[in-house]
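RECORD TYPE: inverse folding
INPUT: structure tokens
STRUCTURE:
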């Protein structure tokens, strides 16, 4: 079963996601009229933009392969809560949260049932703050074609975490689900 890739913006932050032409550019086919799941998303000359709203989210891709690399460049214009990317890992889709819980932590939101802010979450990086008005670059590598699966992430060129384990240890964040 292939899972979907989605972007989530939580609470009242405003963000813009930059588009750069590259192999597999998923923003190239983004259509604000067809893709919104929740919130007001629009296409701009530089990518896509979402207006401030609680848990605004959009679906960007389906049929994501088991092994992939993803780069997301974004600017959180205002607010202090999460910018999240729901990433397929085998048959589950956890959220990779940045600035979760008003900047308490970055990491995968549900590892072994633990939120990103839980000190026992092995992917949590504390504190997890983002600077508003600054362009950030999130790089994610997922390897799910063999067991154990692995997820690693860098933010602005610095390693965030490297996780390895069974997909059964990951759960989606039900507050950030997509169809």
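DESIGNED SEQUENCE:
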């Amino acid at each position: 079963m292939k899972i979907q890739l989605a972007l989530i913006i939580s609470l009242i932050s405003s963000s813009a996601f930059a588009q750069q032409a590259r192999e597999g550019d998923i923003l190239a086919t983004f259509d604000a009229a067809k893709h919104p799941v929740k919130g007001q998303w629009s296409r701009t000359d530089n990518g896509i933009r979402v207006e401030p709203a609680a848990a605004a989210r959009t679906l960007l891709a389906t049929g994501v392969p088991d092994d992939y690399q993803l780069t997301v460049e974004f600017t959180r214009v205002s607010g202090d809560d999460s910018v999240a990317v729901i990433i397929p890992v085998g048959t589950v889709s956890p959220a990779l949260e940045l600035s979760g819980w008003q900047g308490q932590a970055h990491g995968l939101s549900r590892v072994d049932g633990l939120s990103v802010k839980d000190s026992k979450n092995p992917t949590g990086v504390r504190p997890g703050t983002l600077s508003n008005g600054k362009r950030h670059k999130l790089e994610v590598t997922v390897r799910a074609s063999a067991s154990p699966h692995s997820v690693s992430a860098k933010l602005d060129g610095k390693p965030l975490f490297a996780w390895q384990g069974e997909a059964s240890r990951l759960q989606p964040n039900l507050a950030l689900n997509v169809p």
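NOTES: The first helix runs from residue 100 to 103.
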